[in-house]
Amino acid sequence: MRKRKKDKTKQRLILWSTLVLALCIWAIVAPHITPNDPYYSNLAVAKQGPSSQYPLGTDQLGRCMLSRIMAGAPSTIFSAIAVVMITFIAGSLIGVFCGYYGGRFDAVVMRIVDMFQAFPGIVLAIAVAGILGAGMRNAVIALSVVGWTQYTRLARSRVLAMREELFMKAAKISGSSDLKIIFRHVLPNAMSVLVVTAALSIGGNIMEMASLSFLGLGAQSPKAEWGVMMNEGRSLLQLYPGMILYPGIFIFVAVMLFNLFGDSVRDMLDPRQK
């Protein structure tokens, strides 16, 4: 029974990993195979419905909606993945060093973490992006500034739990340096919960990145990006709902796939699920 459950978990992980990989490959290839120029404006065909030439219709400037969605896929998806990678690496390392060394460094960092977590994440990201100015790079920085704290807390708690373990004492007695102990023993033992958290965070970061662009703090028009497209179509929602509906559907599908992928990673790695 237990083996059958484990096999099903592996099958789900393979399935969702394959679909996420397919989505990422599509996002890389899509800008090069668009049916029309995503930035070409033609007011003569503005606000048209789906047709053979424009499968998802056109926007208020006569640009092909499908082409713009395909061209905007890398910006929305890979910027969110970049945020997760930055926060995962930075937050994990800071948390490991805090838990391992403790003392004043740990106390100062934890108070900084408390200050960051006292505000809702998206509100703080909006404030940081507003200070830095609009732009995709600044949006990535804003979300990274907000997102590292969860990894720091998780990594620190894992290190504190294993500081008194026998293998840690044996490593110190054997004469291993602190860096060797951290990177050979501490990080590998703390990695599973951090990887699970990172996998579950990608979908949320796609939503937050699109939200910043929708609010005018991320990518800027005329750049093809899903949040920007929803912002451009919001004033015409009642007359031409497809202008905001189609990019919203692609955001929904991307977030759903990454969330299901994160759930399968959690089921595979999280010991509490076993």
From TrEMBL:
One of its GO terms (biological process) is transmembrane transport. Pfam families: BPD_transp_1 (PF00528). Residues 73-262 form the ABC transmembrane type-1 domain. The chain crosses the membrane at residues 12-33, 77-101, 122-148, 193-218, 239-261. GO terms for cellular component: plasma membrane. Keywords: Cell membrane, Membrane, Transmembrane, Transmembrane helix, Transport. CDD domains: TM_PBP2 (cd06261). It is found in: Cell membrane. It is a multi-pass membrane protein. PROSITE patterns: ABC_TM1. Belongs to the binding-protein-dependent transport system permease family. OppBC subfamily. This is Peptide/nickel transport system permease protein/nickel transport system permease protein. It comes from Acetitomaculum ruminis DSM 5522. The lineage of its organism: Bacteria, Bacillati, Bacillota, Clostridia, Lachnospirales.
